[in-house]
Amino acid sequence: MRKVIVLFVISLAISCGKKAKKANGKLNVVTTTTMITDLVKNIGGDKLDVKGLMGAGVDPHLYKASEGDVSKLFNADVVIYNGLHLEGKLEEVFEKMEHQNKKTIVASNAIDKNNLISSELFASNYDPHIWFDLSNWTKITSYVASKLAEIDAKNADFYKKNAKIYLDKLSALNKQVENKINELPEEKRILVTAHDAFNYFGRQHKFNVVGLQGLSTATEAGVQDVQKLAKFIIENEVKAIFVESSVPKRTIEALQEAVKSKGQEVVIGGTLYSDALGSAGTEEGTYIGMYKANVSTIVNALK
Ligand code: ZN
Question: In whole angstroms, what is the distance from residue 92 CA to residue 175 CA?
Answer without folding.
Answer: 40
